[in-house]
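lol ok so funny story. i was supposed to be doing the assay writeup but got distracted and ended up predicting the structure for this chain instead. priorities right. anyway since i did it might as well share w the group, maybe its usefull for someone
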Amino acid sequence: MRIAMVGPLAESVPPAMYGGTERVVSWLTEELVRRGHAVTLFASGDSRTKARLVACSRRSLRLSGVRDHWPLELEMIGQVLRRASEFDVIHFHVGFLAFPFASLVEPPVLHTLHGRLDLDWFPSLLGRHPNLNLVSISDAQRAPVPDASFVSTVYHGFPRDLFRFDPAGGDYALFLGRVSPEKGPLLAIDAARRAGVRLVIAAKVDPCDQEFFDRDVKPRLAEPGIEFVGEVDDAAKETWLRGARALLLPIDWPEPFGLVFIEALACGTPVITRPCGSVPEIVRDGDNGLLGSDETELADALQRVGSIDRARCRADFEERFTVEHMTEKYEELYERLAARPRAAARGAAT
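and the output, tada:
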């Protein structure tokens, strides 16, 4: 098939550092190319791909000094629309930004929603666009908008050899990703200290979270057993994950998926978190991780996590979260939508 893959411009595809959506776009794109599809990737100019790359900005935007990404992303969408006749299906990963334009082109258009949907204005926006083909990344993500035109839920997945399995792990808990209130860094510190377990925080601080970090988190980094290493690249991420006793990420928000959870599982590292959003779909309490709601329960989980079989964590990743599983589901969607008449191909919810 001829597929247009449209990623955000905030990070390169794949990203050099933080960037979950761009990673998923990269894994899906490369696997589709490997399977013989003709994929055109619309992304930043510093992206790396075996697909045909259309550079829609000179470089990724997050660290470039460009604060408003929408003008360039709208221009990217315009490029896609002008070339729509070249494709059998167009797959957007830019949130709601492309919604108004999906009905303007002949090929079926698919929108994977990567973010939270519990936003006050989102139901009314969807009401103005009832014939979209939406993909959720977990069933829980759909909860705020159950009547939206979802065509499937597709879990994220990545190559089996991307993260190596470590049967032993180490002695520290790892907080990985982004320092923000909804990710629960303060609760992670409290739980780790209560359990007497060293905590490594490998996470970036966005400008919008700098005040929270400076005021609430930074003063606690001097406490015994707490180590802050900042944002890490892929190689360092794997090293920290493989060597961890557990991934400790006590989120306090409706997590749409949680890519870091399956990255930990691929390394054999159990996940300790709170049962928010998609977590119960990914983390099976007592099987590949432990769930807790407060400091006491999370500290207890840290002390009990040695009972979780690390080989079982890796097996669960391979059974549910590989790039092959993800790509097969998207291929089925592409073929089903492309085979239908244009009017029927939009908004055929399942």
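The chain has twelve helices and 13 strands. The chain has two domains: 2-158+322-345, 172-320.
back to the writeup now i swear
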